[in-house]
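INTERNAL AUDIT FORM
Audit reference: QA-55
Scope: verify that the stored structure record matches its stored sequence.
Auditor: D.O.
Record contents follow.
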Amino acid sequence: MRKIILLLTCMFGISVFSQIKVLKNETLVEIGKDNSVGLYKKEDKFTFNYQDLNTSNLNTIRSFSFENQNNDVDGLYSIIISGFTTMPASNVTLELPNDIIELHYEKNYGQPTVQFIQYINKNRKYVGKSQYLTRKQVDKIFGKSTGKSSLYQGASVAPQQYNSKPATTYKSTTKSSKARK
């Protein structure tokens, strides 16, 4: 009887360990990072991570993602850079699949800067804000200064059918922003 109980105990112990599965470790490739803002790539999906300055908890990290259809990463970079040369009078609004992002331009100490304002899940109640970024910081985040921009430039684009909606839609708002410094 003791041997049977010992045998059953051993069998039960082995079955407990069989419930653990080893998951595939998927890696993120860092395109660029500066302070608390970074751009990462996983397959053809790009993710911006930033420290949310809009919360009282300084450890809050937010992110927004989109796929690189129609070279959207290059398009986003171009929109941001063009805002440095001719600062828009109002925020530039970008509609992503899950979020709405506004690019808020402002001069800080005479230098043009941009800030990401994220409306989480397209809800204007939940807002995240990144730090203000200079052009040099934006170049670093997009991998222009490190050469990692080749990870998204010239990426293969899947053929699109007619009347299909692009993954990222760029819209400009007509709201007036606060006075420039």
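Auditor finding: record pair retrieved intact. The chain has three helices and nine strands.
Action required: none
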